[in-house]
Amino acid sequence: GLSVVKDAVIGDDLKLLSDSAVLGFGADSDVKITHDPDNGLFLKSAATADDNPFLLTLQTGETAIEGSDVLGAINFQAPDEANGSNAILVGASIEAVAEGTFDASEIHTKLVFKTASDAAPAERLSIASGGYATFSSGATFGSSISASYGYFSGDLTVTGNDITFGNSESI
Description:
The chain is 0% helix and 29% strand.
């Protein structure tokens, strides 16, 4: 029954006690965060118009972005894992990383996918601003690689084993 007209300052913790608690944002609560009991959260926009998805934007407060700066990251972790040590480290991460200094006319960013193997996550795949994918430790592509239209252009580098092309030439 509490109604607050302006901003409210509430100590250290805000607890919503209901198993289906909802935080509404906006004058008509058109954006909501709903508690999914024992699982997590639902994020939802009430907008029903076509091509109006829910947006979640991660923003850095940095004012001078340079190459290799991380703009935002999503980390995956099991901090309560009973075995401790490595088991509680971040297990995987997705990062947006600046490829160079941002300025008034240029902004080049790559997506970096990291996974852990007995240590902190390391880069395994990145997708550069130009669209090129780089695999750090090789790649496996199901049973075949095909395209319904277009062509492959650029360098293909494979470490280990042979490469056989569609025309039966091999390296």
